Amino acid sequence: MLHVEGMQGESTAQKKTFRRALGDWFRASARDLPWRETRSLYRTVISEFMLQQTQVKTMLPYFDRWMQLFPDFETLAKAEEASVLKAWEGLGYYNRARNLHKLAKALTALPDVPQTPEAWQALPGVGPYSSAAISSLAQGYAAAVVDGNVVRVLARITGNRQCFESGAEAIEAIRPAADAFLDKQNPGLHNEAMMELGALICLKNNPSCMICPVQHCCRAFNEGTAESIPNIQRKKTEKVLVERVLLENAAGEILLRKAPHTAKRLANIYEFPTAEEVKVSLTGKALLFKGSRGIANQRIEERFYKIASDKQLEAHIAGDSLLEWICEDRLEEIPLSGPHRKWLGKVIQAIEK
Predict the structure, then answer these.
(1) Which of 34, 188, 210, 269 qualifies as a FRET site for 339, CA 20 to 30 Å off?
(2) pLDDT digit string (tens) for 211-222?
(3) Set 10, 48, 248, 271: catalytic member
């Protein structure tokens, strides 16, 4: 058993043992992923942006399609925002797509590509995590990546039982250990291995400790405390109800609303409007369809009601630039939010009844 003293008390020999075991495991067991098969700065940037808040299995088809549409920074920089958002449709957290678009424009305007995490952080959408990932994986810069997977691995390795009020607090607390354990000779491989270990072996629930390649280095395994580490206080789930309206005009067009460019999450993304946005009462209206979606710590139930048009409602719609009548043929072209795209077939059936 490798004795681990604490966050920064490990000996050079202990760190070498950990790095060697981790690296050997990753070289033998790394998943075959498209951005690993053909490595480039651009593919690393795209994969890292897509993997934020998204599981690998979910983003894989998006990555392949994205590379076909926007094979390099120059193509992405020249693209219209609507086409960028459409390609991102279904991945959620659309600010990632908008920031990628801005990043491509900024990079193509620079005389030289940034070479350090600090330089990367000066660009749109690039924070401490992304800058360390991009510079280490694509450029070999010795910067430690710290995400939820790395927090979990290192908190268990060091036996850190501290109670964290948030994931962000845990990341900052674990960062010194990440720096201490980093293999500065192979930072990209090390960072990928740490994230891979957290994703495949050192799981949040039911970690596969018996097949873990660094089991002999892990204080939590030795003490039987892996399941309770890290101790991060989770925000309570907030239940939210949203009531939406289904409206079709005489031409067979469906009413949608495009979120304003100032919207925090869904700027320039289309959704079915809410009763409040259309300014109608749903008293006495029959519920036709309901769906559930999750955003951050919110669990949102969306209820859909079919309403009839009248002159007052039509006047309101005509005066609101965010409300738009969309013919059925255009529904495939515009960027719809992921849940509304998923529910579209059922919603249209409800409208046409």
Answers:
(1) 34
(2) 999 999 999 999
(3) 48
